[in-house]
Amino acid sequence: MYAPQPSRSPIRRPDARSSSDQGRSPHRAHHDRQHHARQDVAVEVGAKLAVNLTLAVIALVYLGRLLNYNLTQKQKLEHLQAEVVAVDERVSKLRDQFSIQFDPHQTQQLVRQQRHRISPNQMQVIWTTPPVTAPSPDATQPAPPESDATVISSQP
């Protein structure tokens, strides 16, 4: 209410022309104002297009970077999933071994496996390979195969 009011510019008389309008017809002055208005609109539209084009290029660059990042993350995920599968298999094997090692019914079998001992009522078999002999030139028939197992009795 008590704020100062803006001052009004002095009213120009319609017949008074400025120094730039002298010598021009009113139609020409109107045409020049329209031309300047169109130029201003064209500059504004051009600036908007330049800004939007710049933003679009920046968006495309960052979109490309995001796609590259996404692909690398997918590769890392696949690698980690393969490792998880391998670790899951190892964990299941270790659980099986754990249950066998702490099963009271399989204690005797476990002791035999770890100490490489056999029970008194079993025989130990040791496999050996026979020595290789050179074939004689006179021999036309192959020699009979030798036994490749040796039985060691645990009984005296």
Kindly describe this structure.
The protein contains 2 helices and 2 strands, in the order H-H-E-E. The model has no long low-confidence stretch (mean pLDDT 78). It is 54% helix and 5% strand. With 156 residues, it is mainly α.
Radius of gyration: 51 Å
Elements, N to C (H/E): HHEE
Name the average pLDDT: 78
Largest sheet, order of strands side by side? Answer: 1-2
Shape: elongated
How many helices?
2
- Count of β-strands: 2
Strand count, sense and barrel status of the largest sheet are:
2 strands, antiparallel
Q: Spans with pLDDT under 50 lasting ≥5 residues?
A: none
- Helical content class: 40-55%
Structural class of the secondary structure composition? mainly alpha
Report, as a whole number of angstroms, the end-to-end distance: 128 Å
Relative strand content: 5-15%
Write the layout of secondary structure elements.
Elements: H1 26-101, H2 107-115, E1 124-127, E2 149-152
Antiparallel strand pairs: 1-2
